[in-house]
Write a structure and sequence with these properties.
Blueprint: E1 9-10, H1 16-41, H2 46-74, E2 86-87, H3 95-98, H4 103-127, H5 131-145, H6 147-158, H7 161-193, H8 195-205, H9 208-233, H10 244-261, H11 271-296, H12 301-324
Parallel strand pairs: 1-2
């Protein structure tokens, strides 16, 4: 624990020197966060990375102005006080939590940072009794408020239509690689591979509860298997497919959903009612898979439908024949 800050201070109890010190450390943190965003985005979104480089440079300008003012009023020894030392002061998300977020989410986080900083400077200006300090804090509040315009100017400078289109394509490709592909693979596996055991059990026993339990076990087991397999098969570093945890979650969850879709109807105690509803669910699942392939994988719809429906029909027929034998 840092001496003098064993308890979080109230903002109202800070001296003007401490407010300036807090502003200096906050500007340092924000500049570092913007540079981290820039480094995170530079490989895939080089033009947006330039925008964040420019915003980091703006924060450096603010920090230098605050340090100059502190030296003029209080000397060169700046008290050590940071956001976490002040009760109720706005916090920043750790950069490592933002590493796997999409470009739009990072931009939204940056906007929130500017709004928080503007609020702080307005409150700090109201607390100040020194004219020069009050003026600087007010100017910084206006600057943070105007950062939206500055960000817009930086975007206009670095993000022309071609750059925006290229970044949009990159973002879509990353979304497909990280979420859609493993999720689609899971949905196909869960929907198709569980058809045989579920309907074989259904027609062999004509017991809806037993069929449901078999379907539940097959779906959950397949989901766990697919999730771990996807996460362990590729760490995403070389392939660029993104976080293995995200891919594993997408694959595992969608596999389980795909199997549960036609297992849940067997909670209905009447065998043929449950079976007819399960038939309808299977039809919807297979067409949903075809739609996703067409929408995100750019596979012609009728080709995707033919492949999925044919494969599903064969597995379904195998399950019915085995269960009826």
């Amino acid at each position: 624990m840092i001496p003098g800050f064993t308890h979080r201070r109230r903002f109202a109890d800070l001296s003007e020197q401490e407010i300036l010190a807090l502003a200096i450390s906050s500007e340092e943190d924000d500049a570092q966060i913007y540079r981290s965003y820039a480094d995170r985005l530079r490989a895939d979104y080089p033009d947006t990375a330039k925008v964040f480089d420019g915003m980091a440079a703006e924060e450096d300008t603010h920090r230098r102005a605050l340090i100059d003012l502190h030296e003029t009023r209080f000397g060169g020894a700046i008290p050590l006080i940071r956001r976490e030392h002040v009760a109720g002061f706005y916090a920043r998300r750790p950069v490592w939590l933002m590493e796997n977020l999409g470009i739009d989410r990072i931009r939204a986080e940056a906007e929130m940072m500017e709004r928080d900083a503007e609020t702080f400077y307005r409150k700090a200006a109201q607390r100040s009794t020194d004219a020069a300090t009050r003026k600087l804090l007010g100017d910084l509040a206006a600057a943070e408020s105007g950062h939206h315009d500055r960000a817009g100017a930086l975007e206009a400078e670095h993000l022309d239509d071609d750059a925006r289109d290229a970044e949009a394509r990159t973002a879509k490709r990353q979304f497909v690689l990280t979420w859609v592909q493993p999720g689609l693979a899971g949905l196909m596996d869960g929907s198709v591979s569980t058809l045989a055991p579920i309907f074989a059990t259904a027609f062999a026993t004509q017991d809806t509860w037993t069929t449901f339990l078999v379907g539940l076990a097959a779906s959950v087991g397949a989901g766990i298997s697919m999730g771990f397999t996807e996460a362990a098969s590729d760490d995403g570093e070389l392939s660029g497919r993104g976080s293995p945890v995200k891919r594993g979650i997408a694959s595992g969850v969608m596999t389980t959903i795909g199997g549960l879709g036609h297992a849940l109807p067997y909670l209905i105690p009447h065998f043929w009612t449950a079976t007819l509803i399960a038939f309808a669910v299977v039809f919807i699942e297979l067409w949903a898979i075809a739609w996703i392939q067409n929408r995100y994988m750019e596979t012609p719809f009728f080709r995707a439908a033919f492949q999925v429906v044919l494969g599903g029909a064969l597995v379904f027929a195998a399950g019915v024949l085995i269960g009826s034998g």
